Amino acid sequence: MQQRTSSTREIPNTDSIPQHIAIIMDGNGRWARNRFMPRVAGHRQGVETVRGVIKACIERNISYLTVFAFSSENWRRPSDEISLLMQLFANALEQEVTKLHENGICFKVIGDVSKFDSGIVQAIQKGEQLTAKNTRLVFTVAANYGGRWDIMQAFRKMMIQSNELSLKSLNFEEENLAQYLALSYAPEPDLFIRTGGECRISNFLLWQLAYTELYFTDTLWPDFNEHELDRAIQSYQKRERRFGRTSEQLQVAMPSEG
Ligand code: IPE
Ligand code: IPE
Ligand code: MG
Question: How much is the pTM?
Answer without folding.
Answer: 0.95
